[in-house]
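Entry 12.
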Amino acid sequence: MTKTAWVFPGQGSQAVGMGVDLKDIPAAKMKFDRAEQILGWSVLEMCQGEEETLSQTLYTQPCLYVIESILADLLMENGSPDFVAGHSLGEYIALYAARVFDFESGLHLVKHRSQLMDAAAGGLMVAMMKFDRDRLEKIIETTSDIVIANDNSSEQVVISGTPEAVNAVVSQVKAKRAVPLKVSGAFHSPMMAPAAQQFQEVLESVVFNDATVPVLSNVDPTPATEGTQLKTRLLEQMTGSVRWREIMLQLPQEGVSQVVEVGPGKVLTGLIKRTCPDIALKNVGSLAEIS
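Predicted 3D structure (tokens):
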């Protein structure tokens, strides 16, 4: 029997025009309207506006959550996955798809998360491609105020920390490319601890049900369904690394032979293709791609 995992991309996958093809579907329209009540602004208008504005953390995260949630619901009409996982913000849609919380609760969490992360300052994140992993890990071990924030694959990571620490590491590790990310803070690092503390108060107000399908979390790729465990993992995600490389490697261990990336772009399927070439891949980023 074929086992399928749905994966949900996070910040960086957004694109102007995303979600517009969903606006005339009654169930989607209800969610867009509800989102506008919660956020105080229109997701559809934001997705048809300026790319620079859409790319701001404050707007990117809620827009992706709403659109990916709608796509997940439409896909669910044809059957459920065996596992779900999401990259950073994508974990919120994975939890929604596993019915850990309802649409509104998830959006409230994402709204607060985006505000806290948008307000974060003083940090730097740099994506590194094709580098000596052993050397990178050894230098990070001996350098304070820096971590691997996103372990995306054997050849791609994002480091996060103080500008001084990040620049020091970049200067010591030869990489094919080192690209600073357009974010305000050192996400997925201990520098987010004050934001995580504030977020915990919001998180505690939301009931987490047990998941209907196992979730592979960013901070722990071991599949889990227990609500309180998933809540703990989600809180740890603010300051913990996104262990996407390990999530990908876990999929074939769980017997997964097909992965569907639900959301705009093809970043996650691109990573999986290079890491687990035997897994069949599909992208669902628009209404036309749902079948």
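Annotation: The radius of gyration is 18 Å. DSSP finds twelve helices and nine strands in the chain.
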